[in-house]
């Protein structure tokens, strides 16, 4: 069983399962390794190999720049140890998982159309579904080579229930397979939870949730976590959803069922491509523009959570950090790019 030693520390952890990545091995043993996407896209998990041998699962992962490759930097979410190794990699208490990732079989118990291209998949595991609002899990379909990250839309629970709102991604191997061939009674491998962009219950600030497309899933979970916790009853919720067309709008019915929604929350939508036949009289344009117009100077006082396609997340973070000087530590998102 290979042992991973973090250089200049007394931290050692074992890669106990042969198919574990270094990142998964560390997190599952409670080591605070930095990461975000767990998918080779963000670069948060870079390390240097000082001694020993590794296997690289994706040597050309987009998070590795030509300079990284020249310098010999690797991604902990895309490497496995082939024997005992020593690596140089940061670790910090802020990355220590409250719920350590666990790999288990999950059975699909229900699927429900949310919009024309978003389906809610409900899975059940024998063990409790312990995760924080806003986190994600890695799903591996039978026969698939690589897992895909999907965020839960519900709240952690002891009943082993994991809900995901998943958008069909044309040409996406996993989402196409999920939509086409996964039916109640089928199972897949679920590994999680992961993710750092989760609800911060200790924050005294009101909450801003911004979602684009299927980014609604983690943001819905965060809204549920906020409105369902009596300890957070003083916090208000500003919920913004960016849809391409009016037919893509979703989430309001679920939010309206939450305790205190009418008194404590507002739901705002911007449609980016209203058609002439849509008869849409609401806001048009990009969601970050509507957030900026609606909340203005108030933004710097809020705890902000965002999820959605990379261009939407990039435009929204620029608006928050640069246009409105929202402190970086109040802006939460996991980069998947
Ligand atoms: Fe490894 Fe994002 S966590 S590249």
UniProtKB/TrEMBL annotation:
It comes from the Bacteria. GO terms for molecular function: 2 iron, 2 sulfur cluster binding; oxidoreductase activity. Residues 2-93 form the 2Fe-2S ferredoxin-type domain. It holds the Pfam family Fer2. PROSITE patterns: 2FE2S_FER_1, 2FE2S_FER_2, FAD_FR. InterPro entries: 2Fe-2S_ferredoxin-like_sf, 2Fe-2S_ferredoxin-type, 2Fe2S_fd_BS, Beta-grasp_dom_sf, Cbr1-like_FAD-bd_dom, FAD-bd_FR_type, FNR_nucleotide-bd, MRET. Residues 101-200 form the FAD-binding FR-type domain. This is Ferredoxin--NAD(+) reductase FAD/NAD(P)-binding protein.
């Amino acid at each position: 069983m290979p042992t991973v030693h973090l250089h200049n520390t007394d931290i050692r952890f074992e890669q106990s399962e042969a198919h574990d990545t270094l990142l998964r091995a560390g997190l599952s043993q409670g080591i605070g390794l930095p990461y975000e996407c767990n998918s080779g896209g963000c670069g948060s998990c870079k390390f240097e190999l000082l001694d020993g041998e590794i296997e690289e699962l994706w040597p050309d992962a987009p998070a590795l720049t030509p300079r990284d490759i020249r310098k010999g930097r690797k991604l902990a979410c895309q490497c496995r140890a082939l024997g005992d190794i020593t690596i140089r990699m940061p670790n910090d208490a802020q990355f220590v998982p409250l719920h350590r990732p666990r790999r288990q079989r999950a059975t699909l118990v229900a699927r429900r159309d949310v919009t024309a291209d978003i389906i809610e998949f409900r899975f059940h595991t024998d063990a409790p579904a312990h995760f924080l609002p806003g986190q994600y899990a890695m799903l591996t379909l039978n026969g698939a080579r690589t897992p895909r990250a999907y965020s839960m839309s519900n709240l952690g629970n002891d009943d082993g229930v994991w809900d995901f709102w998943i958008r069909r991604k044309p040409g996406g191997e996993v989402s196409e397979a999920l939509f086409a061939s996964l039916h109640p009674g089928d199972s897949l491998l679920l590994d999680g939870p992961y993710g750092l962009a989760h609800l911060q219950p200790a924050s005294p600030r009101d909450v801003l949730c911004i979602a684009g497309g299927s980014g609604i899933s983690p943001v819905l979970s965060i809204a549920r976590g906020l409105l369902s916790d009596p300890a957070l009853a003083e916090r208000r919720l500003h919920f913004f959803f960016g849809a391409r067309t009016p037919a893509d709008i979703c989430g309001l019915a679920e939010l309206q069922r939450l305790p205190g929604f009418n008194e404590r929350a507002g739901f705002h939508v911007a449609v980016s491509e209203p058609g002439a036949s849509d008869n849409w009289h609401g806001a048009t344009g990009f969601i970050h523009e509507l957030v900026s117009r609606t909340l203005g100077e108030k933004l710097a006082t809020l705890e902000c959570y965002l999820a959605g396609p990379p261009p939407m997340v990039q435009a929204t973070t620029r608006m928050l950090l640069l246009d409105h000087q929202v402190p970086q530590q109040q802006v939460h998102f996991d980069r998947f790019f």
